[in-house]
Design goal:
By secondary structure, the chain is mostly helical. The protein is about 60% helix and about 0% strand. The chain has a domain of about 45 residues. It has five helices and no strands.
Length: about 80
């Protein structure tokens, strides 16, 4: 299963359910988001489909934006600066 498996026109029901179930998770703390591979794909813009799903997820409840912002800030604080060789 590659990162483009969500775009397949003949996508089986099991894959559709899997992609929907990702967004059914309950995220309470910023760390919950950071533990979600789909969230990281959204943040690093690694998967256009993840971007769409997360934008829709945040639009459902404005409070989610605050949680996402906390997770992004935490992630940015944890990232190490790249050193020049």
């Amino acid at each position: 299963m590659g990162k483009h498996h969500y775009k397949a026109p003949g996508l089986c029901t099991c894959l559709r359910k899997k992609s929907l179930s990702i967004m059914e998770n309950v995220y309470v703390e910023p760390e919950d988001l950071l533990a979600d591979e789909s969230f990281l794909s959204w943040h690093f813009k690694a998967d256009p489909d993840a971007e769409k799903r997360w934008e829709r997820w945040m639009a459902v409840d404005p409070e989610r934006y605050g949680l996402v912002q906390q997770a992004v800030e935490l992630l940015e604080n944890l990232r190490m600066e790249e050193k020049e060789l």
